[in-house]
TrEMBL record:
Gene3D superfamilies listed in its UniProt record: 3.40.50.1360
Domain Glucosamine/galactosamine-6-phosphate isomerase: 21-149
Organism lineage: Bacteria, Pseudomonadati, Pseudomonadota, Gammaproteobacteria, Enterobacterales
Pfam annotation, one family: Glucosamine_iso
The protein's name in its UniProt record: Glucosamine-6-phosphate deaminase
GO cellular component: cytoplasm
Gene Ontology BP terms: carbohydrate metabolic process; glucosamine catabolic process; N-acetylglucosamine catabolic process; N-acetylneuraminate catabolic process
One GO MF term: identical protein binding
InterPro entries: Glc/Gal-6P_isomerase (IPR006148), Glucosamine6P_isomerase (IPR004547), NagB/RpiA_transferase-like (IPR037171)
Organism: Rahnella contaminans
Amino acid sequence: MTSPLYVTQAGRLNVEVFTRREDMGQAAARDAAEHLRQRLQQQARVRIIFAAAPSQNEFLAHLAQAADIDWPRVDAFHMDEYVGLPENSPALFSHYLTEHLFDIVRPGAVYKIPAAGEPVQNCAEYARLLQQAPVDMVCLGIGENGHLAFNDPPVANFDDPLPMKIVELDGVCRQQQVNDGCFPSLNDVPVHALTLTIPTLMAAARLFCMVPGKNKHQAIKQTLTAPPSAACPATVLRTHPACTLYTDIAGFGELADE
């Protein structure tokens, strides 16, 4: 069994640091799978929101191989999507999750955020689907600018009245998509996206947050040490009653010595 190299806490946020991102993904998937099994024993269906990003690769690979999960009783959502990309674009987050998880485990229901169509209407319809029952789990990451989903610092709101909204992506966020290899250049990255808001994500009963790699070090440091504010949206995770942040030593860095 993979054990963390280092364990700490920031506010109510549990933090587990692993030697390698592969170990991180395996441990996070083990914990998420166990929680999912418990939920499936307690209720007829389980509703999960997933993030789509290279930071989730190892986690999703191990989760897809987890045994004894009744995936036909799982309703799967995702947390954000670009506006305006063609339906067959490999850069779509729905495409990523289909390839890395949905086509492998075959959840009973998969609700994809449309990239095409009228954005306001798409937000309203997706919010309606989400609000039909409580969300049980969120599997998420943190952006290089501290964003959760596409709640970048300029548009993040801890008290957002909307369950989902249209946002303009900031420059750091768009550059991250290039850094992650999702687009060849900044000009190729869409400017607008649809995102679940921070209150929607925080309303879930259990959060699993996977944030590996040295490019995320500053975001992790701010998440754990900065005053809670929309300047680093991920600082809100320190207030959730049941959230664990999983990272590797490359992401955590010198914080282990502080």
